[in-house]
């Protein structure tokens, strides 16, 4: 069964929300455990030293897992936001037409930007940046 791009994006958003929720639950559990242990130093030589170190290691591992889940959620959101077109998509032809129109518009804008650059004799600075942005050319930030 072929799914549309909208259905695929919706699935990515749902997966991302599930990953975020999982990360929140893990973090809340770690914070609750940290509240119970707040300010308790590791008692060197005490019989509870290993237990305390293991508890800290477990919390560190859980926080790392929560961070990984958040990163996975961000990846899913970027995928959901991306304008991918799949060959088995039922709306692929419309998507390709939109993409072609966008690329043609960018091409025209870049040709105009290049002509402006040739006229000024160098790459545009602050004055020409506004001209390029008005043409639809985004200025790279590097």
Briefly characterize the structure.
By secondary structure, this protein is an all-alpha fold. It contains four helices and no strands. Helix 1 (5-37) packs antiparallel against helix 2 (49-81).
What does this structure look like?
The chain is mainly alpha-helical. Helix content is 73%, strand content 0%. The protein has helices spanning 5-37, 49-81, 92-120, 126-134. The chain is elongated, with a radius of gyration of 26 Å. The model has no long low-confidence stretch (mean pLDDT 76).
SSE layout and pairings?
Blueprint: H1 5-37, H2 49-81, H3 92-120, H4 126-134
The domain count comes to: 2
Q: List the uncertain runs.
A: none
What is the H/E string? Answer: HHHH
Largest sheet: none
Mean pLDDT equals: 76
State the secondary-structure class.
mainly alpha
β-strand number = 0
Query: How far do the termini sit from each other?
Result: 44 Å
Q: DSSP helix count? A: 4
Oligomer: single chain
Helix content: over 70%
- Give the overall shape: elongated
Radius of gyration: 26 Å
Percent of residues in β-strands: under 5%
């Amino acid at each position: 069964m072929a799914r549309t791009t909208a259905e695929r994006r919706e699935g990515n958003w749902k997966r991302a929300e599930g990953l975020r929720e999982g990360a929140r639950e893990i973090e809340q559990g770690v914070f609750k455990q940290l509240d119970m242990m707040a300010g308790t130093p590791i008692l060197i030589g005490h019989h509870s030293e290993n237990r305390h170190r293991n508890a800290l290691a477990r919390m560190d591992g859980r926080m790392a897992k929560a961070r990984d889940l958040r990163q996975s959620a961000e990846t899913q959101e970027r995928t959901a936001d991306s304008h991918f077109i799949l060959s088995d998509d039922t709306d692929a032809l419309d998507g390709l037409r939109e993409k072609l129109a966008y690329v043609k518009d960018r091409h025209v804008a870049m040709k105009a930007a290049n002509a402006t650059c040739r006229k000024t004799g160098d790459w545009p600075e602050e004055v020409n940046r506004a001209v390029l942005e008005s043409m639809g050319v985004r200025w790279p930030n590097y």
